[in-house]
Amino acid sequence: MTKERQYTAAIIVIGDEILSGRTQDTNSNYISKELENIGIEVTECRIIQDKKLEIIKAINELRKKNDHVFTTGGIGPTHDDVTVESISEALGVKIEKNHEAYRILKGHYKNIDLSFNKVRQRMARIPKGAKLIKNKISAAPGFKIENVFVFAGIPVVMRAMFSESLQFITEGMRIHSSTLSIDSVEGEIANMLEETLYIVRDLKIGSYPYFNSKKDFGVNIVIKSYNTESVIYAEQKIIESLDKLNISYEINNKT
Amino acid sequence: MTKERQYTAAIIVIGDEILSGRTQDTNSNYISKELENIGIEVTECRIIQDKKLEIIKAINELRKKNDHVFTTGGIGPTHDDVTVESISEALGVKIEKNHEAYRILKGHYKNIDLSFNKVRQRMARIPKGAKLIKNKISAAPGFKIENVFVFAGIPVVMRAMFSESLQFITEGMRIHSSTLSIDSVEGEIANMLEETLYIVRDLKIGSYPYFNSKKDFGVNIVIKSYNTESVIYAEQKIIESLDKLNISYEINNKT
Question: Where in A49-138 does DSSP place strands (E)?
Answer without folding.
Answer: 68-72, 95-97, 125-127, 131-133
